[in-house]
Design brief:
This protein is α/β, with parallel strands linked by helices. The chain is built from 13 helices and twelve strands. Bound molecules: 2,3-dihydroxy-5-OXO-hexanedioate and magnesium ion. The site of magnesium ion has 6 residues, from loops. Pfam families: MR_MLE_C, MR_MLE_N.
């Protein structure tokens, strides 16, 4: 089997005005859709970042894949490495919460984008679900958590009608957001994205969630925007309300000290984002749970290796997400299905995406009882809807955004918004 065609299509889709430690989401999120076709009529799909820096690498790699056997992933990795080595590193200002946009992740994120598409092609050729190439499913229902955000009711200078979620700044509004997300998807656990408003208020929202959903495991994620002292103080207020405390304070040293002082289980997708950071984290017991993300951890197989390392060193594993569509959701689900020690429900932004903005046939995938199901359909189990792909590509062309920048967007609301961290 040989690759005869590779297409990388940048797309944009509506995104809600979600608040985070950096600033606020822009009206559109960017992704890339990867298609690989083979000489025997098979194809494979992938989804990755759509920022200019990521697209530049994907575009340079794709032409070199013509003639490659999709089973030859070692050759893919060599091509990606040599391509990135020949390119100037890109800056990542404003996109600090999208780890895949960091220049240091150029190899792992481009490799991952194509690895998923090649594994999908392999699996379709063999007529097996992709998870079978990862050792088989240890579970077929993959648990995800409700991912709550503080948000404004609408975007500034809004290019479209306000979303249906409304404002979420108060305790009551956050509880209402959780209730709707749980009613619609059956989620069993809840994550609150924090680091945006006053820490005492964010903790009060956790308390309100605890009261409203006493059985749901809770997490709070201030994205490193709390000083060590603030994180210790909030830990005292939180008591034992949390399942885990996600990236409250910056740095491996800060997290290690916080764990020493509070004993709370700390999770991260910020201080352990590659194997070198993993090694340094283990040496000082900085975190107890690693949130994997195949998009920047170097694909599905490297994510399995990360999970094995977590098992070796007694750490828990779960999954991080950025704004994404269904191909990514299925890739996350297939690898999660093949990770025996997945110890927590995974994160996903998927419920925030609009129903008519999916690129797969049949529209948005369902999350039932808080889970995404894996079937015996070949590959990732999804097909591309070409009309939708064309529509979202047109949106990419017209939206004017070429790289995620939550800081730039927040300065439209607050012109003197600073990037100082930790803010609280
Ligand atoms: O767990 C996390 O840190 C994230 O999901 C990072 C994301 O960028 C999130 O903060 C967002 O979408 O604003
Ligand atoms: Mg996080």
């Amino acid at each position: 089997m040989k690759i005869t065609r590779v297409t990388v299509t940048p797309i944009a889709f509506k995104d809600a005005p979600l608040l985070n430690a950096s600033g606020i989401h822009e009206p559109y999120a960017l992704r890339s859709i990867i298609e690989v076709e083979t000489d025997n009529g098979h194809f494979g799909l992938g989804e990755s970042y759509g920022d200019a820096a990521a697209l530049a690498v994907l575009d340079k790699v794709k032409t070199q894949l013509i003639g490659l056997d999709p089973f030859n992933l070692n050759r893919l990795r060599a091509i990606v490495k040599s391509t990135v080595a020949g390119m100037a590193p890109a800056g990542n200002s404003g996109a600090e919460l999208a780890p895949g946009s960091h220049a240091s992740k150029a190899v792992s994120n481009a490799y991952s984008a194509f690895e998923v598409a090649l594994l999908d092609a392999q699996a379709r050729y063999l007529n097996v679900p992709l998870v079978d190439l990862l050792g088989g499913a240890v579970r077929t229902e993959i648990p995800f958590s409700a991912y709550l955000f503080f948000k404004y009711a609408e975007h500034i200078d809004s290019p479209y009608e306000p979303d249906s979620w409304g404002e979420a700044l108060s305790e009551e509004q956050i509880v209402a957001q959780a209730r709707r997300m749980i009613d619609e998807n059956g989620f069993k656990s809840i994550k609150l994205k924090a680091g945006a408003l006053d820490p005492e208020h964010e903790v009060a929202c956790i308390k309100a969630l605890k009261k409203a959903f006493p059985d749901a495991p809770l997490r709070i994620d201030p994205n490193g925007n709390w000083s060590l002292e603030t994180a210790v103080r909030m830990a005292e207020l939180l008591g034992d309300d949390l399942q885990y405390y996600e990236d409250p304070t910056p740095g491996l040293e800060g997290m290690a000290e916080l764990h020493r002082r509070t004993g709370l289980p700390l999770a991260t997708n910020m201080v352990v984002t590659d194997f070198d950071e993993f090694r340094r984290s283990v040496a000082q017991n900085s975190v107890q749970i690693v949130l994997a993300d195949h998009h920047y951890w170097g694909g599905l197989r490297d994510t399995q290796m990360l999970a094995l390392m977590c098992d070796t060193f007694g750490l828990g594993v779960s999954m991080h997400s950025n704004s994404h569509l269904g191909i990514s959701l299925m890739a996350m689900s297939h690898v999660a299905a093949a990770v025996p020690n997945l110890s927590y429900a995974c994160d996903t932004h998927y419920p925030w995406q609009e129903a008519d903005e999916e690129v797969i046939k049949g529209g948005k995938l369902s999350i039932r009882n808080g889970c995404v199901g894996i079937t015996r359909a070949p590959g990732l189990g999804v097909e591309l809807d070409r009309d939708q792909l064309a529509k979202l590509h047109d949106l990419y062309l017209s939206c004017g955004i070429r790289s995620r920048d939550d800081v730039r967007q927040m300065r439209k609301y607050k012109p003197d918004w600073k990037t100082v961290k930790p803010r609280f």
